């Protein structure tokens, strides 16, 4: 595949980003919400730092990564708010706690305690609890019934700030029905934990539906940056 020239890459990303931003505004308005309530996180996993510089120049400040090494390197090259949304391995927590500003994928108490112990003095790490929208054990996310106990654990740690809930629509199910369930879970959670009212949900294929069901943080990669290139 020919390499895109820098100018072409800029216009390509700019057009795609404009379209996503318009879709965010339209779906928020259609849901009777203020579009400014929705934070767009550009998921940059597998894309080069040159793309992040382009995103910066277009006003993007929130970047999401799934892997510790990649996030750690890119966060040195690009100033912004850095989100980690990948599966958490215990031995990576010390490193993730250094470069990430927000962790979306927390789903167990041991990891909560370990993150709290790993945060640098004076820093507060923002976190979401990932809730499972299917009942298969062993996948990412906790069952809704376990959320309150985890939330209370997060709140014991002054190094952590609980923003709210995160979810991924399960494969093989219409995201609309999954996000309907999520909205109910999220309402109940916000009632109990009013200081943690945010909801991280929605990716390239389903962020409009997520916004109509209350998402405040959407994580969008391929709709902005195109199909992922094979890792170099
Ligand atoms: C990769 C990823 C995204 C972004 O996915 P796209 O389909 O490229 O928008 C969002 N959330 C999580 C948890 C991911 O792993």
TrEMBL record:
Residues 37-227 form the Alanine racemase N-terminal domain. CDD domains: PLPDE_III_YBL036c_like (cd00635). The keyword Amino-acid biosynthesis does not apply. Keywords: Pyridoxal phosphate. The keyword Nucleus does not apply. InterPro entries: Ala_racemase_N, PLP-binding_barrel, PyrdxlP_homeostasis. PANTHER family: PROLINE SYNTHETASE CO-TRANSCRIBED BACTERIAL HOMOLOG PROTEIN, PYRIDOXAL PHOSPHATE HOMEOSTASIS PROTEIN. This is Unannotated protein.
């Amino acid at each position: 595949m020919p390499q895109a020239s820098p100018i072409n890459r800029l216009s390509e990303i700019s057009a795609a980003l404009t379209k996503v931003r318009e879709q965010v505004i339209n779906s928020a308005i259609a849901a009777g919400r203020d579009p400014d309530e929705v934070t767009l996180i550009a998921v940059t996993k597998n894309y080069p730092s040159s793309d992040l510089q382009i995103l910066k120049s277009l006003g993007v400040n929130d970047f999401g990564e799934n892997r510790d090494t990649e996030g750690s390197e890119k966060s040195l090259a690009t100033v912004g708010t850095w989100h980690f949304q990948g599966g958490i391995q215990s031995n990576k927590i010390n490193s993730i706690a250094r470069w990430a500003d927000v962790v979306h994928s927390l789903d167990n108490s041991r990891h909560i305690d370990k993150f709290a112990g790993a945060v640098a003095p004076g820093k507060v790490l923002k976190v979401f609890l990932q809730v499972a929208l299917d009942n298969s054990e062993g996948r990412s996310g906790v069952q809704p019934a376990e959320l309150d106990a985890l939330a209370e654990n997060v709140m014991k740690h002054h190094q952590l700030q609980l923003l709210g809930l995160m979810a991924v629509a399960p494969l093989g199910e219409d995201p609309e029905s999954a996000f309907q369930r999520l909205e109910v879970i999220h309402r109940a959670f916000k009632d109990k934990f009013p200081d943690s009212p945010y909801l991280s949900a929605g990716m390239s294929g389903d962020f409009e539906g997520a916004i109509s069901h209350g998402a405040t943080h959407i994580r969008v990669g391929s709709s902005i940056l195109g199909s992922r290139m094979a890792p170099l």
